[in-house]
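Tokens as discussed.
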């Protein structure tokens, strides 16, 4: 598949994952999100950048559990409860948070158990 980003054609696989991770940009994420019907807000970007930084440091993808535990404790009392924060994340990415975040962050497709 192809996605036009600022006049440049970006190649993705059939699911929308980048073929060349070097093509990632915030503009790519915005264009892909529009195509997927997602409007990106601050909470979305926090998760996208968390995934990008985690992957850059570890060359692996965080699990839903790890993401919720690490980020939830920094979100204040409302999200200190793991289930509450997980529910919030699913509200942002109802089609599957880890899958959608990886796609928008220009990262590899996660394994099914992530």
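Sequence:
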């Amino acid at each position: 598949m192809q996605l036009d980003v600022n006049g440049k054609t970006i190649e993705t696989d059939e699911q929308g994952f980048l073929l060349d991770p070097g093509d990632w940009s915030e503009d790519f994420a915005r264009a892909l999100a529009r195509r997927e019907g997602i409007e990106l807000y601050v909470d979305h970007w926090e998760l996208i950048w968390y995934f990008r930084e985690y992957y850059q440091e570890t060359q692996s993808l965080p699990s839903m559990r790890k993401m919720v535990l690490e980020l939830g404790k920094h979100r204040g009392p409302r999200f200190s409860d793991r289930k509450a924060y997980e529910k919030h994340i699913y509200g942002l990415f109802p089609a599957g948070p880890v899958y959608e975040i990886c796609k928008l962050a220009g990262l590899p497709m996660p394994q099914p158990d992530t």
